[in-house]
Design brief:
Elements (H helix, E strand, L loop, with lengths): L2 H14 L9 H4 L3 H9 L12 H13 L5 H17 L2 H12 L5 E4 L15 E5 L2 E9 L9 E7 L10 E7 L5 E5 L10 E11 L3 E2 L5 H13 L9 H10 L5 H26 L5 H24 L5 H10 L10 H16 L1
Helix pairs in contact: 1-4, 5-6, 5-7, 7-10, 8-10, 9-10, 10-11, 10-12
This protein binds flavin-adenine dinucleotide (FAD).
Flavin-adenine dinucleotide (FAD) binds next to strand 1 and helix 12.
Cofactor: FAD
Family: Belongs to the acyl-CoA dehydrogenase family.
Keywords: FAD, Flavoprotein, Oxidoreductase
């Protein structure tokens, strides 16, 4: 049995047994800590640093998203913080975090964006001041998904202000139960959900919880964005709706649905290329941005097709529609991805 067949058989069995109910956008809004522990018990979290690699994770995540499984609780840790800790973390950080991530017990939120720093991440104002044995973090993060129930946060903060704004940034990992951390939910179109703001009031972070090199945060985070942008979740957020649309489609809808399937095939090829390059040790920033830009367009076009095909369940369309405003914003807006792609192309020409 191939790896894909093994995963598909198990995930389909869980769905049939009612372990989860398929939904669109399950990697962000399908939050189920027990399901994450279930994957952890099978050894299916942390493949990329446990000797399996990004292509194997690509297959696993495709199958989970295809089924609309609730993977949000461990997603950030599995996708980008675990690999970063494995690569850049101190021995103590690795020993303290990786086993918990692999078990589905350690759940991360991302503290990148701030009220005045979104696309322009180098404008972050959260400050880290030196203190005995570590750092004191002071500032505010916003849009941090699931921060109110995360065990840990990744925080990008400024450790010095003297240089150009792309310098003097540092990445930290902090325990959400540390004194001085407050997470508050922000309602979205659906009411209270994943969005949060996080306030940091002189939060102590020990030296061993600095990720990588002090002051090198910009270079590190831009590399990590390839991991954040280059996965199948940037294409498959509405796959459960596409499956329902294909099931309901009649001969009159063949052109509309066929075009989506052809686009999906091309996007999957690109996704596999990105994963293969990550397995080769690269951070393919431009190809990952391309995948996200084209993938987000595809995810929205699936909803439009579903609306045009009679018989697709209204609730499934509504669920995808309410999630869709975030597709082209989260992880970098379409316009910013265009800038990233153009810059890389110009560099290649120069
Ligand atoms: C569903 C969702 C989940 C999220 N989860 C997280 C999370 O967990 N952690 C986290 O830290 N953040 C998270 N974010 C925040 C996300 O990263 C930011 O929304 C995104 O980076 C854009 O920043 P902004 O909202 O401040 O918009 P701005 O940066 O203010 O941009 C406003 C507009 O200006 C355009 N623009 C900006 N700069 C340029 C440019 N150079 N060229 C052309 N156009 C430009 C943008 O495209 C956009 O249309 C999430 C967002 C969403 C929607």
């Amino acid at each position: 049995m191939t790896w894909r067949e093994q995963v598909r058989e198990q995930v389909d069995a869980w769905r049939r047994d009612g372990v989860f109910t398929p939904r669109s956008d399950s990697w962000l809004t399908g939050y189920d800590e027990d399901f994450s522990r279930r994957l952890g018990a099978r050894g299916w979290i942390g493949l990329t640093w446990r000797g399996r690699g990004f292509l194997d994770r690509f297959v696993l995540t495709e199958e989970l998203l295809r089924a609309g499984a609730p993977v949000a609780a461990h997603w950030i840790a599995d996708r980008q913080i675990g690999p970063a800790v494995a690569r850049l973390g101190s021995a103590k950080l690795k020993a303290g975090l990786l086993p918990g991530i692999e078990a589905g017990e350690v759940r991360f939120c991302l503290g990148m964006s701030e009220p005045d720093a979104g696309s322009d991440l180098a404008s972050v104002r959260t400050r880290a001041r030196r203190t005995d044995g570590g750092w004191l973090l002071e500032g505010q993060k916003v849009w941090s998904s699931h921060a109110h129930r995360a065990t840990h946060a990744y925080v990008l903060a400024r450790t010095s202000t003297e240089e150009h704004k792309h310098q003097g940034l540092t990445e930290f990992v902090l325990d959400m139960t540390s004194p001085g951390v407050t997470a508050r939910q922000i309602p979205d179109l659906r009411g209270p959900g994943h969005f949060c703001e996080v306030f940091l009031d002189d939060v102590f972070v020990p030296d061993w919880a600095v990720l990588g090199t002090v002051g090198d945060g910009w270079r590190q985070v831009t590399g990590q964005l390839a991991f954040e942008r280059g996965g199948p979740e940037r294409v498959l957020s509405t796959y459960p709706l596409l499956a329902l649309t294909m099931a309901a489609a009649g001969p009159a809808d063949a052109g509309r649905v066929g075009e989506l399937v052809a686009r999906l095939t091309a996007l999957r090829r690109l996704g596999k290329q990105v994963a293969a390059r990550m397995d080769g040790g690269e951070a393919p920033i431009g190809p990952a941005a391309t995948l996200k830009m084209l993938g987000n367009r595809f995810e929205v076009d699936v909803i439009e097709a579903a609306r045009a095909v009679p018989g697709v369940p209204r609730a499934a369309i509504d669920e995808a529609l309410l999630a869709s405003p975030g597709f082209s914003l989260r992880g970098g807006t379409t316009e910013v991805l265009g800038v990233v792609i153009a810059r890389e192309a110009m560099g290649a020409v120069a």
